[in-house]
Design goal:
Distance between the termini: 63 Å
Radius of gyration: 31 Å
Structural class: alpha+beta
Number of strands: 25
CATH superfamily of the domain at 41-227: Penicillin-binding protein 2a (Domain 2)
CATH topology of the domain at 41-227: Penicillin-binding protein 2a (Domain 2)
Domain Penicillin-binding protein dimerisation: 47-209
Organism: Flavobacterium haoranii
Shape: elongated
CATH class of the domain at 41-227: Alpha Beta
CATH architecture of the domain at 41-227: Alpha-Beta Complex
GO molecular function: penicillin binding; peptidoglycan L,D-transpeptidase activity; serine-type D-Ala-D-Ala carboxypeptidase activity
Keywords: Carboxypeptidase, Cell inner membrane, Cell membrane, Cell shape, Cell wall biogenesis/degradation, Hydrolase, Membrane, Peptidoglycan synthesis, Protease, Transmembrane, Transmembrane helix
Protein name: Penicillin-binding protein 2
Strand content: 15-25%
Number of helices: 22
Length: 637
Amino acid sequence: MRKLLLPILIIVGALILISRFFYLQVIDETYKLKAENIAIKKVYDFPERGYIYDRNGKLLVANQPSYDIMVVPAEIKNIDTLEFCNLLGITKEYFDKKIAKAIVYSRRLPSVFISQLNKREYAAFQEKERKFEGFYTQKRALRDYQVNYGANIFGFITQASEFEIEKNPYYNSGDLIGKQGVEKQYEEILRGIKGVKYLLRDKHNKIIGPYKEGKYDTIAQQGKDLVLTIDGELQKYGTELMANKRGGIVAIEPSSGEILALISMPTYDPSLLVGRKRSENYTKLYYDSIAKPLYDRGLLAQYPPGSPFKIVTGLIGLQEEVINEETSFVCHHGFYYGRGAFMKCHDAGVSKLNNGIYQSCNTYFANVYKRTIDKYKNPSVSVDKWSTNVKSFGLGQFLGTDMPIGAKGLVPTSKTYERAYPNGGWRSTTIISNSIGQGEVLTTPIQLANMMAAVANKGYYYTPHIVKEIKGEKLDKKFVTKHQTTIDEKYFDPVIRGLADVYNRGTAASLKVDSLQICGKTGTAENKIRVAGKTYQLKDHSIFVAFAPAENPKIAIAVFVENGYWGNRWAGPIATLMIEKYVKGKITRKDLENRMLNGSLEDEYKKIENIIYQRAQEPVKDTIKSEAIKNEEEEVN
């Protein structure tokens, strides 16, 4: 039997090879097609990208036709270069430069010579196209924006880079690809699938008909439409309210995690990044390092959360049973936490949980935090447990949204302080600023909006997401998965009552809206910049978080207004108007609306420019940060 084994293996191997050769040469003609590729011309049919709608069916992004002139250098023969240049309004130097670039890419493969001709230019060239062998027009679809807002949500489309072409064989030179926003995140769904026709050429390079009677031709498949969770009218209104201001607004539907509005200011008209001037306009936006219109503050900007963080401080204190609803502390306009160390407070008197919230008493929450950290003998154990509770609200971590960017923020752990104090000696009073959101904690607007959604739901949230529906597709199951916080449901009711009293008789009483119970929290965050080795104190950031109605909440919101002084001066009115617009469909607080629409903080921003340009000896990146542990900050793209 052993003598037969080797011959059997040889025979079996030979049969396998013969059958494979037969399949490739007789049955499967794919390799034959590739071999004959020199005599075959591929013509692509580009599909329309999927349309984009808001949650109410309003069309936000459509398409418009565009035409590129493509070139195959090896096929250029005896053309009148002067006539060609005059026809397209280009110089001979430009012509030579583009041909040289095309040759570097490939002599035999097509690449873009001139992109995005308008209808007049296309008609003029098409009439004489036959005279310019080696050149042809390629129809594509560009975006046609139906609105002038939401640029940070949509992103834009542009030509695929050489790196992207090498990375993904689907793309060829001149193909369009989504960048930023949903255009990037949902590129494969929006782009569709290119169709291709194989045309046979004779020895004179003339097209003589379809190859194999079109056997290998494919039809283009249009991209799938997206329905966003965004409410277009709310997005537009928020953009108008934030005119002449800088900051971010994020609104979420608590019951689903759907993002109702995602606003970053300053912004730009998305149509600026369409057409022949796209590159020029993008360059201007990119190099605006002061206003940063391309920087999505709602997703990326990391700010100290300020007083809204007291909500979490109180909930953790209840959960750890270091306080109850009736626990009281006496405030003498501040809190002494060490020799000569005093945390100021605008409040005075006896504070319990309820009035501690609606009067935003620093003393009350400093005491709660101190008791929380002092609960265990080892502060490292306490801080790590506190950190776990905080992170259960989605703070200090990437939320996993369906946007291609996001910032982690910062929630410190014991390791943070062990690095900062390698010799030990730190305790609850050392890090007491965490109690009021002014310590090492950093948050993004979307994280605070999500935190309020968790409070509105009394202990859980859904991962925030911006796409509501994809035709023929199912959403990722992570967007319908409930995330539970570490806080028991019973502890949310007293905190929610305190948040309601912020409007009833507290720091936002002047913002009250008739027949609508809003639960909110004002906030102010210290604001400094460092330029050329020197720190400058600027006007504080204005912060406000809220949800409404108190029963069966429909919207949770976070508003950050940079250099906005204090919570109820700018952020509070904007949040209130956004909530009323969404819940009631109309605005009754016209006084607030007029003040917000006509108000401006440009004078404050000019002060920053003066500091950067007049006082700095060399360019320094304009970065606004808290006094946090810098090496724990992260950002993902």
